[in-house]
C-alpha cells in the first residue's frame, strides 16, 4: 500500500493536498499527539498527507515500509510504537474491526508485543524465558549460599560452645590439681614438722635422763651442742 502511494505521487504529484489544508493539519495533530510530530514533514514528502492515508496502511509491512529507511527513517523504538499506533488507528476505522491475517500473529497481543513481527515476538519470548530461567537459577544459588552461610555460622557457634566447655573443664581440673598439690605439700610439711618436733622432744628427754643419771653425766654445754646439732641436721 505504501508503494502504491509513492507511485501515485510520482504520476499525480501536481494534484497533492496542500500542506496547510485541514486534512493535512489533522494528520499533523494526530502525529504530535502520539509523539511523532518531528516526522510530519518527511511523511508528507513521502506521500502520506491525511489520516486516510494512514488508514490505508492495513498491514504491518506497509507501516514498517513507511517508518523504515526507505520512508521517514524512524529509529527502532519509534518504529515499533508507530506501527502499533497506526494499526490501532486502522483497526478503529475498519468496518469489521479486525486486522488482516498478517497483523493477527497472536491470539491476544499485549501492549509490549503488539505491532511486532513474528521473529521479534519469538526473540522477545526467548529472551523473557531466558531471563526467568536465569532468575530462578540465581534465586536458587542465593538460597544455597544462604543455607551454606547459616550452616557455617551454626558450626562456628557449636565449635565455640564446645571450646568454651572444654576450657571450663580444663580450668576446673587445673584448680583441682593445684588444690591437691597444695594439700599434699601442706600435709607433708606438717608431717615433717611434727616428726622434727617429736625428735627434738625425744632428744631433750634423753639428754635430761642422761644428765640426771649418777653413772654418766654429760656437760651442760655438750647437751646444748647436741640439741643444736639435731636441729641443723633436720
TrEMBL record:
Residues 97-119 are annotated as: Disordered. It comes from Reticulomyxa filosa. This is SAM domain-containing protein. Residues 131-165 form a coiled coil. Residues 97-107 have a biased composition (Polar residues). The lineage of its organism: Eukaryota, Sar, Rhizaria, Retaria, Foraminifera. Keywords: Coiled coil. It comes from the Eukaryota.
Amino acid at each position: 500500500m505504501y508503494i502504491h502511494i509513492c507511485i501515485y505521487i510520482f504520476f499525480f504529484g501536481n494534484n497533492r493536498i496542500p500542506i496547510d489544508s485541514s486534512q493535512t493539519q489533522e494528520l499533523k495533530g494526530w502525529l504530535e499527539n502520539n509523539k511523532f510530530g518531528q516526522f510530519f514533514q518527511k511523511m508528507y514528502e513521502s506521500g502520506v498527507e491525511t489520516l486516510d492515508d494512514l488508514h490505508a496502511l492495513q498491514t504491518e509491512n506497509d507501516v514498517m515500509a513507511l517508518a523504515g529507511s526507505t520512508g521517514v527513517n524512524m529509529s527502532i523504538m519509534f518504529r515499533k510504537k508507530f506501527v502499533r499506533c497506526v494499526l490501532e488507528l486502522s483497526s478503529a476505522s475498519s468496518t469489521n474491526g479486525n486486522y488482516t491475517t498478517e497483523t493477527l500473529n497472536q491470539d491476544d497481543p499485549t501492549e509490549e508485543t503488539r505491532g511486532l513481527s513474528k521473529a521479534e515476538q519469538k526473540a522477545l519470548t526467548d529472551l523473557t524465558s531466558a531471563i526467568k530461567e536465569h532468575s530462578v537459577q540465581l534465586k536458587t544459588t542465593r538460597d544455597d549460599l544462604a543455607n551454606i552461610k547459616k550452616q557455617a555460622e551454626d558450626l562456628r557457634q557449636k565449635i565455640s560452645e564446645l571450646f568454651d566447655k572444654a576450657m571450663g573443664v580444663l580450668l576446673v581440673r587445673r584448680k583441682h590439681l593445684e588444690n591437691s598439690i597444695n594439700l599434699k605439700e601442706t600435709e607433708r610439711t606438717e608431717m615433717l614438722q611434727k616428726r622434727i618436733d617429736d625428735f627434738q622432744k625425744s632428744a631433750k628427754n634423753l639428754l635430761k635422763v642422761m644428765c640426771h643419771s649418777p653413772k654418766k653425766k654429760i656437760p651442760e654445754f655438750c647437751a646444748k651442742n647436741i640439741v643444736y646439732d639435731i636441729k641443723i641436721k633436720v
